[in-house]
Amino acid sequence: MKKVKYILISGFLLIAALSPGQSAKKLVRKGNNAYQQNKFSEAEVKYKKAIDKNPGYYKPKFNLGDAFYKDKNFKDADSIFTDVATTAKDNNIKAKAWYNKGNSLLNLKQYQKSIEAYKNALRLNPDDSAAKYNLEYARKKLKKQQQQQKQQQKNKKNNKNKKNNKQNQDKNKQDKNKQDKKKENKKDNKNKNQQQKKEQQKDKQNQQKQNKQGDQQKQQQQQQRKKQQISKQEAKRMLDALKNDEKKTLQKLQRQKAKAAHHKTKVIDW
After folding, report:
1. Where are the alpha helices (DSSP H) in 37-90?
2. How far apart, in whole angstroms, are the C-alpha atoms of residue 77 and residue 63?
3. Are 15 and 22 in contact (CB under 8 A)?
4. Rg of the chain (C-alpha set)
5. Cβ contacts of 104 within 8 Å, gap of 6 or more
6. Which of 79, 85, 70, 80 has the alpha carbon at shortest distance from 131?
7. pLDDT tens digit string along 97-118?
8. Can you give the pTM of this predicted structure?
9. Distance between CA 47 and CA 41 in Å, rounded?
10. Residue 23: enclosing H or E segment and its boundaries?
């Protein structure tokens, strides 16, 4: 599915018999030999030297892109195939460069760009079945990627909503706890006030009771003092009465004695 088309330089195009060109061609052949032996890093070195020898020679560039691709360096491969696809004059080479660019982008999971690369390849070579197949594959991968991104966004939104809901629940819980605590404090204050009122009322009652007891005790003391005063007065009165009686009795006795003396015959004691 991800087959990469690479070009073997030898025999592909006729090269002018120039020394620099022949030197670049020799380096390309060495790079191809290393490539076929899966020595991709070594092949890259040869292709780069060939490009340095002849910068306008697009074939080592194309094969350098292949070496990068095989070495899983898809980013550099994409850059090389873009250069070849936009600078090569041969439409066949351009079509293959676009196809390989599509494969590089496919591995980079840049599906929308890979679709455009395959389309460019098909515009130049409508009969390329591999490009058609990979185009449909890229479309499916893009659709799946979009679905995953949509699901991720949905999950992210759900997680955000869950987080917000949790925060709201925590806030509501905190508010409820505050309200409950406020109510509890209010209730405690009410109970405390009621208790204080009860204690004050009890103290007042005790004070009233004490005052009443004090008043009663005072009254009793007053009554007792009054009784004592009455008793003293009564005793005095009785004493006075007795004195009067005694006086009267004495006077009576004296009168009686005087009377007896008046009726008694006088006797002269010689």
Report:
1. 40-53, 58-70, 74-87
2. 10
3. yes
4. 67
5. 65, 69, 74, 75, 77, 78, 81, 114
6. 85
7. 999 999 999 999 999 999 999 9
8. 0.57
9. 10
10. helix 19-36
Q: What is the pLDDT of residues 196-233, one digit of tens each?
A: 777 777 777 777 777 777 777 777 777 777 766 666 77
- Which two three-digit tokens encode residue 57? 């020679």
Please tell me the CATH code under which domain 19-127 is placed: 1.25.40.10
Contact yes or no for 19/32 (Cβ under 8 A)? no
The answer to whether the beta carbons of residues 96 and 66 sit under 8 Å apart is no
Over the stretch 47-61, which tens digit does the pLDDT of each residue have? 999 999 998 888 999
Taken as a whole, the chain contains a residue count of: 270
Per domain, the residue ranges of the chain are 19-127, 140-233
Tokens at 69, concatenated: 């691709």
d(CA 179, CA 252): 104
- Number of Cα atoms under 13 Å in the Cβ half of residue 180: 6
Residue 203, token pair as written in the block: 């103290």
The whole-angstrom separation of Cα 131 and Cα 101 is 11
